[in-house]
Design goal:
By secondary structure, the protein is of the alpha+beta class. It is 38% helix and 21% strand. The chain has a three-stranded antiparallel beta sheet with strand order 2-3-4. β3 and β4 form a beta hairpin. It starts with 16 loop residues before the first helix and ends with a strand. The relative contact order is 0.11. The N terminus is likely disordered.
Length: 174
Amino acid sequence: MFFKKKKNAEEIAPVPAEEEEDDDVLDEELYRTGDVISFTVGNDQSLVYSRTNRKASVLPTFAASLLPYCNSFQTIDEHAVACTRSLGMTQQQLDFIYDSLLNMAEAGLLIPLSSAQELYQKLELESEPSKITTVGFVTHNPSDSLKRGITSYIENVKHHGRECDFAVIDSSSD
């Protein structure tokens, strides 16, 4: 069957190569859920707020319910397959789940691994690790094991050339 082109029909421009490359990058990027909270706002909608990047979106409640399943870095496609299996859904629903996850990634509700790596690179990696300033021992009626424990920790601190204080917190009535 052939169709005649309508005179007033809008022409759809081809997708530029740059946008196709962006889609490829999106398909290969690994994502996970950040620190998000969700509130039902009615009409089968939920407000989802990312504490990580302070972005919020109102989503279908079903879409928001997919976020807890995305707690490790995977591609959107891998997350969609895992959600479909976990929720006992059919392959026909896979596209809807994929589109929902893709929308959440574009909205900033799924965190890309590349942004986590950028953040890591910005940290001062040459700074010294935090030092332990005090080692505490919590006891009730101290015994010989306390003496052995403190002695062992003191020897270990001296052996490694470190300095710290020791505190014994005792709850006995003596």
